[in-house]
Amino acid sequence: MNAQASALGRLRGDFFGGLTAGIVALPLALAFGVASGAGAAAGLYGAIVLGFVAALLGGTRMQISGPTGPMTVVFASALVAVGGDLAVAMAAVLVGGLVQIGLGVLRAGGLVRFIPYPVVSGFMSGIGVIIVLLQSAPLLGVAPASSPLGAVLALPGVLADLNGEALLLGGLTLLIVFRTPMAVSRIVPAPLVALVAMSALAVAAGLQVPVIGDIPAGLPELVLPSFTLETWTTVALLGITLGVLGSIDSLLTSLVADSITRTRHHSNRELIGQGIGNLLCAFVGGLPGAGATMRTVINIKSGGRGRSSGVVHALFLLALLLGLGPLAERIPLAVLAGILIKVGVDILDYRMLRLVRTAPRADVAVMTAVFVLTVLVDLIVAVGAGVILSMALIIHRLARQSRLRVRPLPQVEEAGGVPAGDELPGLDSGIRVIEIEGAFFFGSASQLLDRVDQVIGTRVVVFDCSRVPFMDLSAQFALEEMIEGLHAQSIAARVVVPAEIHAQLLRLGAPQLPAAILYDELDRALAEARRLAAARPQAG
Question: Strand pairing of 460-467 and 492-496?
Fold first, then answer.
């Protein structure tokens, strides 16, 4: 009985989540279609086809897919580049879908797992702020700005032109979505309550507020993507751009969904599902798209947790296309704005924001940089910059943790062992030990070359790398360069490395690092160094 109730609860959540996401997706799909130059219907076709296919075949169960801003911009550029020829532009969409499928088959989606949490946090909070800023004007009954910065700059004009009736609807919507008791939301999501109640109020009271407006009707006609020898390079380049951009866009949305629901998506399956969806969009003249962050979050917040939520979203849009459009044409944009502002507030990463004062400064700096770039520049640029900044900080930390010390090896009796430090008495044996501890890589290799003056005038140098966990090619070259300089001054060298690095150096066949000077044990290397020092004159 409990299992049945749980299943019914999930279905109810998916239905309401998909329905709410579909209502929010409607004006966005129409707007993206118009902005692309292919027409409002193209946006709707893309939202239906991609939304349905990606929901069934993708790797993120609660993801809502459809036209997105970045994909619309690239497609609009493609349409202009091919002189407005829709068939050729759709060939680029087809190539983009194939690229996504190829990336999924090659298992490239797993790379998204390497995005650090501060990057995801800054991205999420940035999206939340973007949603709030962009919806501030529609909440007041004024046309929205095209960018977050534009929304801030336009605020004085928006306040001067505000529509009092729209503000009333928007304010009541915010009251409903923020204050509806959880007991009610579990049965009917607060966003859907606000949407139905406020739309009915606007119609009953005859309020003069901006609404969604006319919705295209009728099924799409078949489009056969085509290109010529003159356009194939343009089609290929734009298609690859669409494929890579759509993949990044979708996987970032998947990460946001994971963060909210504490689940894990299947990256490669998501890419394949998105690719098949975009490929089919090319044959119906639909706008290409990706996983849509805002629509996915509102689906989750309205109860959606399974694939059926994405299917409901697509079927709702299809029903409007087949004749139910008049039911949605009178929905006030101020009501949608109020619902979306709640989504924007919810998506802020409060867990990370609460730790701003106590978290490591480097992580806070990465989060802040990604947040600022997300809001002011571009989502993809922000994530790319965040990953690069995180990598640079990790390299800096590893380099600082690396230790390099040069110490003389005092002369002792054979049975006496090896002294532990520089302070023990004993005659100079003519041997210097260069101890390297920690990661030995391009970030720390320069320290070695800086110490060359400290070993001039000795007989043998032993490089103790026994506590080095890994060595990259830059470090190997630095070691070779150091040994070559020592040989030029008649100073012998021996190198102690862990067994794994020993095997790695032998496979590389480095000319200055032959098997004869490589050792797995420090004691053996020091014994050989003493023998060599006794047989060699002091270098001068």
Answer: parallel
Gap between the Cα atoms of 429 and 431, Å rounded: 5
The model's pTM: 0.75
| Count of Cβ atoms closer than 10 Å to residue 221 Cβ | 8
The residue type found at 498 is P
Cα–Cα distance, 108 to 217 (Å, whole number): 39
Contacts of 166 (CB under 8 A, 6+ apart): 138, 139, 140, 141, 207, 209, 210, 332, 333, 334
Assess contact for 466 and 497: CB atoms under 8 A: yes
- List the domain boundaries for the chain: 7-212+225-396, 402-409+429-534
Tens-digit pLDDT profile for residues 321-344: 898 888 788 889 899 888 888 878
Q: At what angle do helices 190-205 and 333-347 cross, to 10 degrees?
A: 160
Residue 289: phi and psi, rounded to 5, are: -155, -160
Q: What distance, in Å, lies between the first and last C-alpha atoms of the chain? A: 90
* Residues 370/118, Cβ–Cβ less than 8 Å: yes
Q: What number does CATH give the domain 402-409+429-534?
A: 3.30.750.24
pLDDT in tens, 269-303: 999 999 999 999 999 999 999 999 889 988 998 88
Render pLDDT for 10-58 as a digit per residue (tens, 0 to 9): 888 999 999 999 988 888 888 788 778 888 899 999 999 999 999 999 9
Question: In sequence order, what are the residues at sequence separation of 6 or more whose Cβ sits closer than 8 angstroms to the Cβ of residue 210?
Answer: 138, 141, 143, 163, 166, 332, 333, 334
- CA 540 to CA 532: how far, in whole Å? 16
CA atoms of 227 and 87, how far apart (whole Å): 8
Residue 510 backbone dihedrals phi, psi, to 5 degrees: -65, 130
Q: List the one residue out of 205, 177, 204 whose CA is nearest residue 193.
A: 177
Give the 3-state secondary structure of residue 494.
strand
Helix, coil or strand: residue 401? helix
Tokens of 315: 């079927």
Q: Which of 207, 238, 198, 201 is nearest to 85 (CA)?
A: 238
